[in-house]
Amino acid sequence: MELGKFFNPKTVAVIGASRNPEKVGNVLLKNLIESGEKLGRQIIPINPNAKEVLGKKAYPSISDTKEKIDLAIIAIPAKFVLESVEQCKEKNVKNLIIVTSGFSETGDKETEKRLKDYLNANNMKAIGVNCLGIFDAHTSMDALFIPKTKMRRPSAGGISFVCQSGAIGLAIIDIAAEKDYKFAKFISYGNATQLDESDYLEYLAKDKDTKVICMYIEGVKDGEKFYKTAKKVAKKKPIIVVKGGLTKEGDQATLSHTGTLAGKKETYFGIFNQANLIRADNLEEMFNIASILENPINVKGSRVQIVTNGGGYGIVSTDKVSETRNLQMAELSDSTSKTLRKVMPSYVNIRNPLDISGDATSKRYETALKHVSKDKNVDLILLVALYQTPLLSEDVVGIIEKAKKSTEKPIVVVSTGSEFTEKLSEMLIEKNIPVFSFPHLAIEALDKVIEYKKRLATR
Q1: Digit-coded pLDDT (tens) for 259-301
Q2: 133, 164, 339, 405: which has the fewest C-beta neighbours closer than 10 Å?
Q3: Domain 303-457 maps to which CATH number in 3.40.50.1220, 3.10.450.350, 3.90.190.20, 3.40.50.261?
Q4: pLDDT tens-digit map of 419-457
């Protein structure tokens, strides 16, 4: 499925561009102008009642434009959408985003079916209806109808998020920017009138910017198509999925949201497992897993070594590892234990967790990481760094980065705190080192990653 014109168009027409700042068509146009004009992207407002919108010449209809248009975004009432699509066809505009609601999700299945049939008959591609729009951090394509004052945009990275729900999408995009999750693409597809979740998976499998695919789905349009596509794509890139509508009540809510019946959860879970998708229990876990998988991770086993400067954090981390299905506590080799006893203070108990004490300096972290990362009994390192302790300085960030570069073993950091901690955590994330606020978040995500890697190795 080729969808490149959606994410990097040269010319975009906004059908329903409005002069009213409270209208969707106004917000869409503004976001497109601000994000794309500096890159030479041409934005054309379509409004039969205005000669100019936001300083741009407006046209009564798309038929009146002279330019070759790569993408049209439709933000007009549902009863006018099909007529507008017909005009796009006459203009030879093949790619559409239809944000308009008021179709099958409100009971009007017939109008949506006529729209779908027309799109298919004329070889046109449409995202939507009833969607939030799309965003590409690499091409600065911002076709979302949410103002930037209300929702921040994430920086460029390797996570692509395909989301059936606009509300979930906008909330996640906003918090992703706050937590510094780095995005490739965001696709809100709503009712999936024509293009569906399988089409987006197929496209993202070939997208060079996408390293890991996250999905929130309520129901799928074609179960067999989804299974075959997902199974094929999962061999190339990790797919992490959250399924909405798991309960009877949630299923009915799904019907009124996107006009789709969600179906039995056991069926979906079976499909996810057979296709080797990673099923996240919630949205937070989905992105926790993605933050680990966004960069290549070489895991040869499931033995975790904990290094901490807080005894309590070592204990709760040990408890959590012991509760998982796929992780186990590492047991340091005799040679590593012997070396650490020589180089560590006498009050440091050489074991797992390795509690290097509240008076640990950055240098002590360096020593611990140097030796445990070389231990043949250690596959993963969970590094707890509580920056509030008096002797730990900012240079520990460089030490952790150096340790990451010197070993193939994954290092995942846990740091809890406010302003100073957040500052150092952001520095680590910039260096592609996953950071979590609490041990259970990191360990739950690692557990799912190890499970996925085990399945991948057997297929």
Answers
A1: 454 457 788 899 999 999 999 999 999 999 999 999 988 888 9
A2: 405
A3: 3.40.50.261
A4: 999 999 999 999 999 999 999 999 999 999 999 999 988
Q: Is 252 or 419 the better-scoring residue by pLDDT?
A: 419
Confidence of residue 1 (pLDDT cuts 50, 70, 90): confident
| Tokens 């952790």, residue located | 400
Whole-angstrom distance, CA of residue 173 vs CA of residue 183: 9
The pLDDT, as a whole number, for residue 180 is 86
Structure tokens at 173: 């995009």
Nearest to 96 by CA among 5, 220, 206: 5
How far is residue 273's CA from residue 285's CA, in Å, rounded to a whole number?
A: 17
Q: Please classify residue 347 by burial: count the beta carbons closer than 10 Å to its beta carbon, then call 0-12 exposed, 13-18 middle and 19+ buried.
A: exposed
Give me the CATH topology for the region 151-294: Rossmann fold (3.40.50)
CA distances from 61 to 13, 43, 122 (A): 10, 14, 20
Q: Which pTM does this prediction carry?
A: 0.92
Q: Which CATH architecture has domain 1-133?
A: 3-Layer(aba) Sandwich (3.40)
Q: How does pLDDT run across 407-424, given as a tens digit for each residue? A: 999 999 999 999 999 999
Whether cis (ω within 30° of 0) applies to the bond prior to 147 is: no
Of 186, 366, 216, nearest to 277 by C-alpha is 216
16 contacts: CB under 8 Å, gap ≥ 6: 23, 24, 25, 46, 47, 74, 75, 76
Which amino acid type is present at position 102? G
- The residues with which 85 forms a beta bridge, in sequence order, are none
Tell me, yes or no, if the two domains 1-133 and 303-457 fold the same way: yes
Give strand pairing partners of 242.
Answer: 216
Give the pLDDT band (50/70/90) at residue 256. Answer: very low
Q: In what order do the strands lie in the sheet with 42-46?
A: 42-46, 11-15, 71-74, 95-98, 125-128
Give residue limits of the domains in the chain. 1-133, 151-294, 303-457
With 0-12 CB in 10 A as exposed, 13-18 as middle and 19+ as buried, what is 234? buried
Phi, psi of 181, rounded to the nearest 5 degrees: -70, 135
